[in-house]
UniProtKB/TrEMBL annotation:
The lineage of its organism: Eukaryota, Metazoa, Ecdysozoa, Arthropoda, Hexapoda. This is Ionotropic receptor 60a. The chain crosses the membrane at residues 304-325, 361-381, 547-568. InterPro entries: Insect_Ionotropic_Sensory_Rcpt. It comes from Drosophila gunungcola. The keyword Transmembrane helix applies. GO terms for cellular component: plasma membrane. Residues 1-27 form the signal peptide. It is a multi-pass membrane protein.
Amino acid sequence: KRMILLQPSKLLMYLLFIPILFIKSQSLNNIINELNKRLLISTNFLYCNQIDKLYKYEYKYLRHLPLINLMIFTSTFNVTQLEYNLGAENKLFLILGIEEPPYDLFHTLDLHLQTAEYIMVLDEPLDLKRETKWLEFVRHLWQLGYVHLLFYTSFDEKLYHKIIFPKLLLEEATVEHYISVRGSFRNLHGYPVRVAAYNNTPRTLIYVNRWGKEVFAGFYMRFIRAFIGSINGSFVPIRTPSNSPGNCTLNLQNGTVDVCADALAANTTAFSLTHGFRLASANVLVTHAKPMHSYRYLTAPFQWSVWLCLAAYVILVVGFLSFIYWLRIGKWDVSRYLLEVFSSLLFSGFYLKNIQGKERYILFGVLFIAGFVYSTEYLGLLKSILISEVFEKQIDTFEALVESNITLMVDPYDQKLFAKYNMPKILFSIMETVSFETLLEHRNRFDQDYAYILFTDRMALYDYAQQFLKHPKLLRIPIDFSFLYTGIPMRKSWFLKDHLGRAWYRAFESGLTRKLALDADFEAVRVGYLKFLTTEHVEAQPLDVDYFVMPAIALAIGYSLALFSFVIEMTAWRMSGLFLGCKTQSRMKIKMGTSEG
């Protein structure tokens, strides 16, 4: 009986002990299930470098997990494959079997998977709130950008999450409470945020106001300052040695700054970027077409093909009229009929007195119609040109830019950027690399002897400064290239990367970025970085020598044609004289021969 009684008592105790273990083992599973559900996590990773403990955890936890993508690792793994090829962006890491902080595991991650959830399961009894080594471990991970950290103590089934500000500590929490404060940094309590400060207008602009205070302004700089102020951080500007964006990349790599107030293209080895939501493109800025010289007004109304047709018409008609006159009179009078043809073309009166008969009416009609059409078109276009401004052909293609022999000026940073992001090869032949300061010196005074490459936001600034000009000094060639998704560059291990990215997206969505861009353009001109160019005044000017070039050219052409016709007539007269002399001599020889016979 005793044994019979003993056995049921042991059996009862065993049966009571199993539900306790089951409830205890379900506690962590419930946490994982709740996180997967609330955070829409589709992939879980389990890491345990002790295989003997892994079997215990399999019985204790894994058998009770719901159907979900689960991968188990006991040694090293390919971080890139985990981050980009397995599951969505939301992932959960369950780290089991650890007695000491797993520094090696996060060293292997190498700043990847910073947005994943990490649950570290501790089996040994300890007081996490007082354990210095775990607090230092949390501080280390936070400085690396890992902020979604949870600790689960299996011996008492408690869940802990971290609090960074105002003092680093681990606090007991529930899943609901953790979700409500997850990754939020609403109050940094004056924590310093280091921002690279340099002039790259309109994105960032540094100047001294009238009260002698240094102002950090610009499109991106004001947004970053507002973001830091909204979370009660301290704005700490770090001046760079020069104004080249290359200093931003260098400082981010060295970890001397947290963020740059600029927009750069992706460089995954050097820094992280906010998500790109706007496609930026580059254009070439070239000089406005030069005003046409007055001496070219004579030929401006017609294209060269029309002038060639007109010259052929004059030669044919003058030759035909002179030939008819020679048949009738026996003389060449090229100058008279050249004058008649030009008179008809200018529609100033012509007569054809020396030509009689039916052909006179036919030729008169031809000259009248041709002269009327030509004079109406030519004189009308010439008058419109004289009372308005006429310019040379505008450079609107890369081929025309190369033919114009204008140098394309770029700085070293842009030269590397365009070499990487598909700049048209035809432009490399005219490219000249200069220092950033030299580039600004020429570009900011709108030097028309050079061409420049600008992205969309900076192009808008130069258009803004020229808005009151009748004819802008610099115009863009309407060909876009180097399409880039740019973003705000940030230190790869900065814990506020996602927060700044979300704030930047909301600013774009609300229209704030457009307002900041317009304010930056206005401020850049107001403080003198760029100046509104002097408005062109239209007023009467004293006559210059240039105004007499056109009539002088017309007079020279007239005298040249007169001389040309005179030479033709003299040549024809001499040739006719020689012909008549030879004819007379031949007749005399024939008569002498006849008389002798």
